Amino acid sequence: MGKLENKVAIITGGAGSIGLITAKLFLQNGAKIMLVDVNEDSLKNAATELQSPNVDYCVADVTQSSDVEKYAQKTVDKFGKIDVFFNNAGIEGVVKPITEYPEENFDKVIAVNVKGVWLGMKHVLPRMNDGGSVIITSSVAGLIGISGMTAYNASKHATIGIMRATAQEAAPRKIRVNTVNPGTVDNRMMRSLEEGMAPGHAEAIKAEFIKGVPLGRYVQPEEVANVVLYLASDDSQFITATINVVDGGMAAY
Fold it and tell me: In terms of domain of life, where is this protein from (predicted)?
């Protein structure tokens, strides 16, 4: 019997690397899943890859309250309930010194990474079963500062604040709320950041990042998904308001 047998999960950012790999792991453990993303083609591809009657998807912009309410209600209409919410959607923004950082890009990062998470809590919690679990994707950037990434840093620190406050509010219903904080994940987002930090020299930036990881490599998306599964399952039923770092020791510096 799987760790999420008969549970229903929402995964925002469901077409991205961490979201999709987490969806695969949740399916293997018995869950029914609503994938949420802003790009319909990406969602269709993800659903095709998963090939399961226990998967549906909803196209939604997480910065829009009506879209967030739509994906929350569609999950209940389709599967009858919500037990797990992986509040995962996020973007990296550009890499620029704060004096050169475009204000419109700052606004977009904050809208997706902070308001999107906040709206998810606002609309999903009222529809969630008591005893459920919420996992918010923060980052090692929510614990340390990284030059050129002020918007992303600010947004990922903010998600920890949302988690801590909501964990207290949801506790009377035995709903747990935690963050997962990946380090340098080997995926598209890191390729974008590496290139943004030194255009044309991304491999050199990757090598520098790895020097700062005591375990000596990037995080694999599957390793993040394993922690999310633990937090989603009843194995973590007395864990709430915690920061769960998956960074190979990077934050130790």
Answer: Bacteria
Q: Respond yes or no: is residue 101 known to be catalytic.
A: no
The single-letter DSSP state of residue 16 is S
Catalytic residue, chosen from 101, 152, 230, 253, is 152
Task: Determine if the pTM surpasses 0.85.
Answer: yes
CATH architecture group of domain 8-185+220-252: 3-Layer(aba) Sandwich (3.40)
Residue-range domain boundaries for the chain: 8-185+220-252
CA distance 137 to 88: 5
Residue 124 has what pLDDT? 98
| pLDDT averaged per 10 residues in sequence order, the chain, 253 residues | 96 96 98 98 97 97 98 98 98 95 98 98 98 98 94 98 98 98 87 85 88 93 97 98 96 81
Sign of the CA dihedral with 222 first, then 43, 120, and 92 last:
positive
Is residue 245 left, alpha or beta, with left meaning phi > 0 and alpha meaning psi from -120 to 50? Answer: beta
